[in-house]
TrEMBL record:
Descriptive protein name: Sulfatase
Species annotation: Luteolibacter pohnpeiensis
Entry's family note: Belongs to the sulfatase family.
Source superkingdom: Bacteria
Keyword tags: Hydrolase
Domain N-sulphoglucosamine sulphohydrolase C-terminal: 332-485
InterPro entries the record matches: Alkaline_phosphatase_core_sf (IPR017850), SGSH_C (IPR032506), Sulfatase_CS (IPR024607)
Listed Gene3D superfamilies: Alkaline Phosphatase, subunit A
One MF annotation (Gene Ontology) recorded for this entry: hydrolase activity
One family name in Pfam for this protein: SGSH_C
């Protein structure tokens, strides 16, 4: 067996045929911001996630994992195919449908003898392919008592969606075919909007005040029309269901009683206060953080159950465990919730990986990686040839402490969906360790913006017109053009890719 030594830690190579093929447990949450994982040490210290943190302590934390299109369905399509959305065919959540006949990494693992399972949120409209077992939510799914589809059969479950997905995943691990290596994709709905918490966790910290982000009251000065003309603010976009001023549909009598016990007196107090202006925004932010972070707590508990199951089944030493989200999420930064933008809170997703014997515990990696790389990584770890059509790169070398000399120094991003939900204008751009060059396209608004993360980490000011940046802008434009050529991005985008035929008209 091939070995290498890193800082006194024994690492084994995954690429030798005599090695035992590793199991893969891929835990994928929806809209989980890295700021809401305590292993990342966000300055606000919003919450504690001890079980997710365990993966970081026993493995590697990636601090610069970027997504090529920060929205749910397209991100999932990229994970499956290792390709940008213009090639895998899923550009937006409005009218895209995943082509299940195309090549995906679960199909390749399955063909190589892996037992494969997908449990939880699918959100790609087509029937899952490449899985021996699948149990998925209908569309976005609901938080309470969700209907699901198991291998083509409709089923109804009682309880909270995070617990149901977790428990089904645990049962599948325990009852799997123990003669085969396995891939389990455990894909949570939470903490997606409307971030509805489990009733048994309500009220654990009823009086906590969450620190506000510095940019909660951003007025978008210093930036262009796109940042001003969006519909994703805590101040104006959140509705009564987001704010729990009305109860979710479909609760049982017992669930509704527990729900009202917590929310009803607090909602009455809110109504009596008759808040306005910044006080109202601050109240909405506090309610948002309580609900969102309570959803995260349930996800973290689920991670703990999965890790314990691996321990109990004697699988820990030969199982790769990955925790990540489909993209980042705004937790009040710039006054926003949701995602979609090339900006840091949206572009950057959490990525924590444990692989005993291959990853040094407590490692931190700062290289630019992506969910575009996941399929290649899983195939590489399993000793399966990576198809040339995939556009990412295996992370195995980085996990083992080696950075290839030709590792990426820039990253290409493209968002399509417009006008649609939240009215974020289509844009593409190039990201480096310090800069972002953003090009808006597809509407009458075609401005470019430049952000310098070193001097402006919150991305508050477009500095593209400063004379001292002229050479850097020229360099980034050339790099952007190179990346578009490398990744075979079409020059003309069909209107249907935006999810709305009115893309060439202003709202």
């Amino acid at each position: 067996m091939g070995v290498c030594l890193l800082a006194g830690f024994l690492l084994t190579s995954p690429l030798h045929a005599e090695d035992k093929k590793p199991n893969i447990v891929f835990i994928f949450s929806d809209d989980h911001a890295w700021q809401a994982i305590s292993a990342y040490g966000d300055a606000r210290k919003l919450n504690q996630t001890p079980h997710i943190d365990r993966i970081a302590k026993e493995g590697m934390r990636f601090d610069r994992c970027l997504v090529p299109n920060a929205i749910c369905g397209p991100s999932r399509a990229t994970v499956l195919t290792g390709k940008y959305n213009h090639l895998n065919g899923f550009m937006n959540n409005a009218n895209s449908k995943f082509d299940g006949s195309q090549m995906t990494f679960p199909k390749l693992l399955q063909a190589a003898g892996y037992q494969t399972a997908l449990i939880g949120k699918w959100h790609l409209l087509s029937t899952p392919t490449g899985f021996d077992f699948w149990q998925i939510l209908h569309g976005q799914g609901v938080y309470y008592n969700p209907p699901m589809i198991r291998n083509g059969t409709d089923m109804k479950f009682d309880g909270y969606v995070t617990d149901i997905i977790t428990d089904t995943s645990v049962d599948w691990i325990k009852n799997r075919d123990k003669t085969k290596p396995f891939l389990l994709m455990c894909q949570q709905k939470a903490p997606h909007r409307e971030w509805e918490p489990p009733v048994d966790l309500l009220g654990k910290e009823p009086d906590r005040v969450y620190p506000e982000p510095e940019t909660l009251f951003d007025d978008y000065s210093g930036r262009g029309l796109a940042e001003h003309d969006q519909d994703m603010t805590i101040a104006n976009t959140m509705n009564k269901r987001d704010l729990k001023l009305v109860a979710p549909r479909g609760l049982t009598d017992e669930q509704l009683e527990q729900w009202n016990r917590y929310y009803k007196p607090r909602n009455e107090k809110f109504e009596q206060a008759n808040l306005s202006g910044k006080e109202l925004v601050s109240w909405k932010y506090q309610r948002y953080m309580h609900d969102y972070l309570t959803c995260v707590e349930a996800v973290d508990d689920g991670v703990g159950k999965l890790l314990k199951t691996l321990d109990d089944e004697g699988l820990t030493d030969n199982t790769i465990v990955i925790y990540c989200s489909d993209q980042g999420f705004f937790l009040g930064e710039h006054g926003w919730f949701d995602k979609r933008w090339i900006f840091e809170e949206s572009l950057r997703t959490p990525l924590l990986v444990r692989w005993p014997g291959h990853i040094k515990p407590g490692s931190v990696n700062n290289q630019m990686v992506s969910n575009l790389d996941f399929a290649e990584t899983f195939l590489d770890a399993a000793g399966i040839e990576i198809p040339s059509e995939m556009q990412g790169r295996s992370l195995v070398n980085l996990m083992e402490g080696h950075t290839p000399e030709d590792w990426r120094k820039s990253f290409y991003y493209q968002y399509y969906e417009y006008p649609g939900a939240h009215h974020v204008r289509p844009h593409y751009g190039v990201v480096t360790d310090r800069y972002k060059l953003v090009q808006f396209y597809g509407t009458q608004y075609h401005d470019q913006e430049l952000f310098d993360l070193q001097t402006d980490p919150h991305e508050m000011t477009n500095v593209i017109d400063l004379p001292e940046n002229a050479e850097k802008v020229k360099e980034l434009r050339a790099e952007l053009a190179r990346l578009r050529t490398e990744f075979k991005v079409p020059e003309v985008i069909p209107p249907k890719w935006f999810g709305n035929q009115r893309i060439d008209q202003e709202r």
